[in-house]
Structure to design on (380 residues):
């Protein structure tokens, strides 16, 4: 099988989407399939040998770390013709994804998509709430023109279905439990982060406003007003950091991390705090759980499909810093309950096993191809 993957950004470790994509592509090659990736942003030199094709693009105005491909498929059609793909796999609902759908229709190639990013929720973070309906219309137009859309959590799948998107299949993301594991806990990291052995609250994310950074800052401020027996650590970077960091006085910002430093940050903290309401899955939440943290997340979207409330973590009311701060306080006051949820979180993370998930992915590919060829035979 020859599979062409589409995503605007292929920088290794850039975000959860790219981590998932590289897992898929590496597994595809391990199974003897041919793979190529089409992207607006190539990976760092020397970090992968997967064949890549860079599509002409421009900088995305609101997020300059990302580029958006020029529209249409003509700019990559020749390279794709040479590759002769059996299936296309879209991973971002941008101009590149729309180009892939047009190519698939023009040349009768099956196309699937993974719903990684919940873009209909984004306009509200940039003062464009009136555009939400339009973004849903664009989203429907893209995903209703693919053969199958993989959705990583059931709450998001139900929301997509309610908004008129068809041919959906539940396929969660996995977690690398060799990289995210309690054995990476570091006493040196703890000594640097937590004075007098205080509990450490961790937030890991790209620093962009749609991750509900304002809710995080308000939650932190409420906790600081009431107590001083914890430390706050933030891992990640992004265009919002310049304005966000002053909103978190006293918090320790470690910047962007990957590999062992990221593993140590996860495993060395105690509580994982994640207020984002725009997640389709929330890979960092599962990584935190696999690392032995007790998660507290906003009870909306992806988090609801991952955390069993009051068992493997706590779900707070969305956009309610008071409720989130109260739940963090309860965990700080109840170390035994924190330990109980930590153990359950570790067990819950085992359900997101890459081996099982990737097996399903390739069964889905095979089923899409069978149905496509059956349709061509009927048409003939």
């Amino acid at each position: 099988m020859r599979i062409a993957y589409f995503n605007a950004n292929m920088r290794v470790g850039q975000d959860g989407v790219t981590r998932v994509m590289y897992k898929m592509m590496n597994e595809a090659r391990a199974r003897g399939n041919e793979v190529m990736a089409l992207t607006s942003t190539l990976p760092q030199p020397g970090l992968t040998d997967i064949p890549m094709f860079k599509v002409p693009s421009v900088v995305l105005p609101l997020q300059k770390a990302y580029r958006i491909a020029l529209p249409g498929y003509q700019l990559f059609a020749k390279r794709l013709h040479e590759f002769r793909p059996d299936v296309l796999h879209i991973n971002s609902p941008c101009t590149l994804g729309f180009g892939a759908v047009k190519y698939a229709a023009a040349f009768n190639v099956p196309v699937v998509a993974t719903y990684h990013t919940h873009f209909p929720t984004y306009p509200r973070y940039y003062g464009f709430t009136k555009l939400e309906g339009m973004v849903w219309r664009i989203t429907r137009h893209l995903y209703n023109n693919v053969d199958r859309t993989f959705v990583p959590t059931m709450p998001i799948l139900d929301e997509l279905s309610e908004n008129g998107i068809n041919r959906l299949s539940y396929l969660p993301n996995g977690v690398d439990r060799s990289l995210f594991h309690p054995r990476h806990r570091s006493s040196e990291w703890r000594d640097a982060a937590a004075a007098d052995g205080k509990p450490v609250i961790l937030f890991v994310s790209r620093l962009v406003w749609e991750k509900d950074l304002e809710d995080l800052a308000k939650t932190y401020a409420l906790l600081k007003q009431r107590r001083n027996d914890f430390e706050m650590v933030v891992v990640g970077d992004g265009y919002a950091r310049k304005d966000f960091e002053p909103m978190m006085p006293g918090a320790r910002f470690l910047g962007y991390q990957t590999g062992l430093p990221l593993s140590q940050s996860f495993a060395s903290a105690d509580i994982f705090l994640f207020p984002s309401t725009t997640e389709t899955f929330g890979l960092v939440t599962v990584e935190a759980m696999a690392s032995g943290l007790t998660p507290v997340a906003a009870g909306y979207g992806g988090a609801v499909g991952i955390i069993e409330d009051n068992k493997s973590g706590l779900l707070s009311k969305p956009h309610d810093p008071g409720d989130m701060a109260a739940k963090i306080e309860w965990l700080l006051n109840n170390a035994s309950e924190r330990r109980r949820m930590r153990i359950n979180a570790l067990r819950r993370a085992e359900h997101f096993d890459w081996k099982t998930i990737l097996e399903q992915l390739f069964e889905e590919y095979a089923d899409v191809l069978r149905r496509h060829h059956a349709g061509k035979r009927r048409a003939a």
In short: The chain has a mean pLDDT of 92. The chain is about 40% helix and 15% strand.
